[in-house]
Amino acid sequence: MTYTYKTKPLPHQRKAFTETANRAHYALFWDPGTGKSKPLIDTVSYLYQEGKCDGVLIVAPNGVQLNWLTDEIPKHMPDDVRKDIKATVWDPVRARSTQKYKKELASLVKHEGLAIILVNYESIITPLFKTYGKRFLDKRKSCMILDESHRIKSADSKVKITAVALGQHAQY
């Protein structure tokens, strides 16, 4: 595997990346603050460079999805990949009411580079996002990331059922 890191990984991050980068499904059950985002961003970047992924759905707790966009992606994603991204944070109010935002969401699905949609757990259960999320994942070579996945541990919760259903539409 050939991959050039933007930021040097810690040994456990390097091991996780090299062991999982080509797997379709995996989980990192590490303690908070141990650097899970970095190997996930490296995996997405590697898969994009290999032509295996061009769309990413990131589900995170409310507010945390913004950290991916403002902090984690700029810090860890290699510049040659980052120059090709178009990212949008799901806004349920704007998705229902503004034509400009609806056009932005449609253009994200059609984006030629790496398209990233960031959404919080509360929003994935809405009918509007379920429809959009499936369409996004189906139209792209897609990857789905669940940040703080303990949010779906309840077997019969709507969030868990929706996250699992959406995951069936992602290749990674």
Characterize the structure shown.
The protein has 172 residues and is of the alpha/beta class. It contains nine helices and four strands. The chain has helices at 11-20, 37-49, 64-76, 79-82, 92-97, 99-110, 121-124, 127-139, 158-167; strands at 55-60, 85-89, 114-120, 142-146. It has a four-stranded parallel β-sheet with strand order 2-3-1-4, sandwiched between helices. Helix 1 crosses helix 2, helix 2 (37-49) packs across helix 3 and helix 6 (99-110) packs parallel to helix 8 (127-139). The mean pLDDT is 94.
Beta strand %: 5-15%
Number of strands: 4
Spatial arrangement of strands, main beta sheet: 2-3-1-4
What is the string of SSEs from the N terminus onward? Answer: HHEHHEHHEHHEH
Rg, nearest Å: 15 Å
Terminal Cα span: 18 Å
- Counting helices, strands and paired strands, the structural category is alpha/beta
Biggest sheet architecture: 4 strands, parallel
**What is the number of helical segments per DSSP (H or I, 4+ residues)?**
9
Principal-axis shape:
globular
